[in-house]
Design brief:
The chain has about 220 residues and is an alpha/beta fold. The protein contains 10 helices and 5 strands; from the N terminus they run βαβαβαβαβαααααα. The chain has helices at about 10-25, 35-45, 65-75, 90-95, 110-120, 140-150, 155-165, 170-175, 180-195, 200-210, and strands spanning about 5, 30-35, 50-55, 80-85, 100-105. The chain has a 5-stranded parallel sheet, with helices on both faces. β4, α4 and β5 form a beta-alpha-beta unit. It is globular.
Length: about 220
């Protein structure tokens, strides 16, 4: 684990985290991106980090959408969530969506050291005090099932679903992504099949189940 990509829109935090990762995890090469799309563009351009560190609260994504899309993009590369949203519901949902670990944003250096040692050893890291809200053997809740289904989408399908959630029509999506409208239609059909829904509206509702508003209690 010698290289990392930090995805966070706060430059000072990126600087501090970069120093922390160099000091406690021996990570030498660190790149940063302030948006999910910038991170994906860097990966498209040939960036091949050994680990990705992701803040969930980015300007161009909502809720777990960034994690789900990034996981589809990086394959087996571990994605570690570092977030100030350390509610049990958020942590549990991030882990179910495929995060290799979750570190509260303002943790001490020793916590980051323990997290990256665990991840390097192939062990999922959870912070002290995390208590799963449900029995792991119990049937998945509606939200958990939605997150699992969203995790089945390919990178392109996840992007198209995001644009559908923004209210774009197939023709507009085709223009935005520079692909044929028939290709968009095929992707939308595949998205609905993977999500187990019959309409675009139902697909949007599934996506919204992964939003922060459904994970973090009011107040």
């Amino acid at each position: 684990m010698r290289s990392a990509l930090i995805v966070d829109d706060h430059p000072l935090f990126c600087d501090a985290l970069s120093m922390t990762l160099r000091a406690v995890a021996g990570i030498e090469a660190i790149a940063t991106a302030d948006r999910l799309e910038a991170a994906i563009a860097a990966l498209d351009g040939g960036a091949a980090p050994d680990v990705v560190v992701l803040d969930l609260n980015l300007p161009d994504v909502t809720g777990l959408d960034g994690l789900i899309r990034l996981k589809a993009c990086v394959g087996g590369v571990p994605v570690v969530v570092v977030s100030s949203l350390a509610d049990n519901r958020v942590i549990g949902a991030a882990l179910r969506a495929g995060a290799a670990g979750f570190v509260p944003k303002h943790s001490h250096r020793e916590v980051f050291r323990a997290a990256f040692e665990a991840i390097r050893a192939g062990v999922t890291y959870v912070p002290d005090g995390f208590v799963p809200l449900a029995d792991p053997a119990a049937p998945a809740s509606q939200r958990e099932a939605a997150i699992a289904r969203l995790g089945l989408l390919t990178r392109q399908q996840a992007k198209i679903l995001q644009l559908v959630c923004e209210g774009m029509l197939n023709k507009q999506i085709a223009y935005e992504l520079t692909i044929a409208e028939t290709t968009v239609k095929a992707h939308v059909t595949a998205i609905m099949r993977k999500l187990g829904v019959q309409s675009r509206t139902q697909a949007v509702l599934i996506a919204r189940l992964a939003s922060f508003s459904s994970l973090v209690p009011e107040g």
